[in-house]
Amino acid sequence: xxxxxxxxxxxxxxxxxxxxxxxxxxxxxxxxxxxxxxxxxxxxxxxxxxxxxxxxxxxxxxxxxxxxxxxxxxxxxxxxxxxxxxxxxxxxxxxxxxxxxxxxxxxxxxxxxxxxxxxxxxxxxxxxxxxxxxxxxxxxxxxxxxxxxxxxxxxxxxxxxxxxxxxxxxxxxxxxxxxxxxxxxxxxxxxxxxxxxxxxxxxxxx
Length: 206
Prior knowledge:
By secondary structure, this protein is α+β, with helices and mostly antiparallel strands. 42% of the residues lie in helices and 12% in strands. The strands form three sheets. A two-stranded antiparallel sheet has the order 1-2.
């Protein structure tokens, strides 16, 4: 089993890989890819610390800069990420989804109300607004990311969902054409590996 260095965070590894194809259209895909396996057994985690998780959510419009993320919140995000990754893996492999992964996504989807609730202001009277207090920022982020994952898995791009074909990369992408790599870097590494394998392959004797 490959050794994973969980102490490597987004702040300590450069350069960071570009978003995988489909990640800009589907933030949930970028969320699933926020844990990146790198050559040499390193592990880049964009949610590895509360500050890193807060920054990721802010960059994706899911939290204010001063949300004050705590480790418990970051851990919730990492947990949902792993469950979404499990569902993506099942979809790519054509296997049944793990019940725990489905339950985690559905729990996130139903944790917060989606309807605008009736509110009452002492001066202006009744009005409707979606509740979004600071203490529920993470719940709303989890619900949004879970909904995005559900949309990806059930939408027209689900057939083009695939895993990067350049080990040790563990990212997913929406395939365009025959491309099975999430980045130019991974494509170059895969081609170099194939070329090396050809050079070192034993020659068959006549």
